[in-house]
Design goal:
3 domains; two-stranded antiparallel ribbon; about 70% helix; globular
Length: about 750
């Protein structure tokens, strides 16, 4: 009880309160904008963690994370556009209720459920704090290896499209985690004399490059409002979205909100059940972050007498997922603090933030820092309350930001990424790392490689290396199989999860093939994505399955097909993993080379299958494209059809045929310049490279100013049609951003004198 009180009093200072409010406000704004994930803003916040005390770091980081959960319901309910996968269950009943004329009631139900669920989760978290220090004692080194393996596999499988790509992401993370000094021998690996790599990969540069830069490039390439594009850079339309956004804040609307809050309290059994389910699911690394809301929604539906009404706008369908949303984050703190094992991207970044503050999670955490767990519980509770109250007041209006064209937000984020990465260690090498990881993150995200398992493997790499070494020395050979049955069970579970994913992928492929064979001429798939040229009749795509146009039937979240990018990426991963493994095996001792070799093998083995498949698809696609062009030149009006041998797997062997005009559209859709989107994405990377070059030449303040002026006057004409509007936008963004850059340098107590380089 004393530590619980001390945890609250630690938040009594004015800076802590300001950081808490600032984090909650940032979370509300970011959570209301589809297309901008919480990982993006948390990556940016890592920049400031170096220059903020521990309490400020906890308030800013957790405040942003917790504050985003209610505001995510705003875009999910009003726009039917969930900002992150966990918010999808809310749309099943939240959006229908809003469309039925009760948006205020839906938001009131969501607000009360989020806060009360967070309260339940915090209570469960506080109870388990008493036993947190006993968790590591129950685990021996083989158990730690098994738990880490299971967590990485679960996150990769749940967040990716195939088991092979999950293994590749995990292996790549382990290889990058081994850069720098070994945690066992202290020998430097893969540094090659570069001083910037002596301390390993910069976590801030990695987070900015993997999450922020690809998202900004996709926003720039789509060229539309963030509310009308998904996380894969695909454009879609939000039907009747403006009706929800323009709901007046009248007395009737406020009465709807009040009735929703009271109704959620009256349905306390569902609320209590969902909060407990969320908290418990959050304790399981790799599961709670992705499936907690789905699990709470499913249990509520199965135990309800009105299960047939779910999906039509029923109140319990909103209470169940929202009651779990913040509760699972509170439960997630138990494995993070007690074992040092996160279950998702947010948890991995939080461990990175604590490491920056020289706080090590895992064994002995509650003994070394007895007040911090209770401080975290209070921060989660208060930031959830603040975020909910702010969201109730300004949430619908904040959601209007989602209609702002994304490219208008891009230049400011680019400048902050370049400046922030430099301020971490005052080395320009970190800025170069950002663009390198940006290219890598863009390719991985586009092709469906799970970034969650990648970042988890990189964060947990040192812990895994230590426990692999201890396992090898304490349990010679494979004796741990007989001595540690818990590790055996966890390893078997990991293998079963991988096999289950393989089976699921094969079944999905079979369903897609069957669906492609059943397509009738004149049928237009519902999931056709992308911008169709105006001169293409509505029925011209009748024989074109959605898999060709970028989506898989029944799987709208599956990435589009990119033949050239796929073969280049898998080929680079195959060659890079082979080189990394051979170099480690021949240049380092057995102990030093263990983790690099394991990581390289995890990349190399799946790529032995991925690369030939991607190469075959690219060759077949190119052959079909040339055949289409040749037939169009010989007989432009011919209605005869050509088998699409180069199509993705859904069409292989299906005999699907398309008309010449449709084939021409397919050619456009699969080329790098799909309606100009891919060309704009390349331009987006060029803009970021321009920021880096200008900052290197004339310094960050002057370089940022020049970049913002050039960008504002040349790249905003599609959204700001007059010179006056472009001039005003340029003046405001340039002035405010340059002031922010100056203050960032002042905050770090650096006196940076620009030096012109030639």
């Amino acid at each position: 009880m004393t530590n619980l009180v001390h945890g609250l009093t630690a938040l009594g200072s004015l800076p802590a309160i300001l950081y808490l409010f600032l984090g909650a406000v940032i979370g509300v704004v970011v959570g209301a904008i589809p297309g901008l994930s919480t990982a993006v803003v948390l990556s940016l916040i890592l920049v400031f963690v170096y220059h903020v005390d521990l309490t400020g770091t906890l308030c800013l980081f957790l405040g942003t994370h917790a504050g985003s959960y209610y505001s995510a319901s705003v875009s999910s309910i009003l726009l039917n556009s969930p900002p992150h996968p966990e918010a999808v269950p809310l749309t099943l009943d939240g959006y229908p209720m809003a469309r039925n004329g009760e948006p205020g009631r839906a938001l009131g139900l969501s607000a009360c459920s989020t806060f009360v669920g967070g309260l339940i989760g915090c209570v469960v978290f506080v109870i388990f704090i008493q036993f947190m220090n006993t968790l590591p004692k129950a685990l021996h080194p083989p158990d730690y290896v098994a738990v880490i393996t299971l967590a990485i596999v679960l996150v990769g499988v749940l967040g990716g499209e195939s088991a092979g790509k999950a293994l590749v992401s995990s292996g790549a993370g382990l290889v990058l985690a081994s850069v720098g000094p070994s945690t066992i021998t202290g020998i430097y690996r893969y540094t090659f004399g570069a001083a910037g790599l002596d301390s390993g990969i910069s976590l801030v540069a990695l987070a900015l490059g993997i999450f922020v830069i690809p998202q900004m490039v996709m926003i720039f390439g789509t060229g539309t409002a963030t509310a009308r594009q998904d996380m894969m850079g695909r454009r879609f339309e939000v039907s009747q979205a403006d009706d929800g956004l323009n709901t007046p804040a009248s007395s009737a609307y406020r009465r709807q909100m009040a009735s929703g809050v009271l109704e959620a309290i009256r349905r306390w059994p569902v609320l209590l059940q969902s909060g407990v389910v969320g908290a418990i699911s959050g304790m399981i690394p790799g599961i709670g972050g992705f499936t907690g809301n789905y699990l709470a929604y499913g249990i509520a539906r199965q135990t309800s007498r009105k299960r047939d009404q779910y999906g039509t706008g029923i109140a319990d369908g909103i209470i169940a997922p929202e009651g779990s949303s913040l509760a699972k984050e509170a439960g997630h703190m138990i494995p993070i603090l007690g074992l040092g094992i996160p279950g998702g991207i947010g948890g991995a970044l939080f461990i990175g933030a604590l490491a920056i503050q020289n706080i090590k999670t895992g064994y002995g955490f509650t003994q070394a820092y007895p007040v911090i767990p209770y401080e975290i519980a209070w921060i989660l509770l208060l930031s959830g309350l603040i975020g909910t109250l702010i969201g109730l007041g300004v949430g619908p209006r904040a959601a209007r930001i989602a209609n702002v064209p994304g490219p208008l937000l891009v230049p400011v984020i680019f400048v902050l990424c370049a400046t922030g990465s430099f301020l971490v260690d005052t080395q320009f090498f970190s800025v170069v790392e950002v663009i390198a990881f940006g290219l890598m993150g863009f390719a991985l995200r586009r092709l469906g490689y799970p970034l969650g398992s990648f970042i988890l493997a990189l964060i947990l790499g040192p812990t895994l290396e230590t426990n692999v070494y201890l396992t090898r020395n304490v349990y010679p050979g494979v004796s741990f199989i007989a001595d540690r049955p818990l590790a055996d069970v966890l390893f078997v579970l990991a293998i079963l999860v991988l096999l289950s994913k393989v089976r699921e992928t094969r079944r999905a492929k079979a369903r897609r093939t069957a669906a492609a064979n059943e397509i009738e001429p004149g049928d237009v798939p519902d999931n056709v994505s992308g911008e169709v040229p105006d001169d293409v009749p509505g029925d011209i795509l009748g024989e074109v399955p959605g898999d060709i146009l970028g989506e898989v039937p029944g799987q709208p979240d599956r990435p589009m097909s990119f033949p050239l990018l796929a073969v280049v990426t898998s080929g680079a991963l195959l060659a890079g993993s082979l080189w990394a493994g051979l170099y480690a095996a021949t240049s380092y001792g057995f102990t030093t080379a263990t983790i690099p070799v394991i990581g390289s093998a995890l990349v190399f083995v799946p790529c032995l299958w991925l690369f030939p498949r991607d190469l075959a698809r690219y060759v077949a696609w190119g052959r079909s494209r040339r055949a289409m062009r040749g037939q169009d030149r010989n007989d432009p009006s011919a209605e005869s059809a050509l088998p699409i041998s180069g199509a993705p797997s859904a069409l292989e062997g299906s005999g699907a045929r398309v008309a010449p005009l449709a084939r021409r559209f397919i050619s456009i859709e699969n080329s790098w310049a799909r309606n100009g989107q891919y060309r704009r994405e390349v331009t987006g990377f060029a803009w970021f490279a321009g920021v880096i070059l200008l900052c290197w030449l004339v310094g960050f303040i002057w370089g940022s100013g020049i970049f913002l002026v050039v960008y504002g006057l040349t790249s905003t004409h599609r959204y700001l049609t007059t010179w006056r509007s472009r001039a005003i936008f340029t003046f405001l963004t340039c002035g405010l951003t340059c002031l922010a850059v100056y203050e960032m340098f002042a905050l770090t107590y650096l006196s940076y004198t620009p030096v012109i380089h030639f």
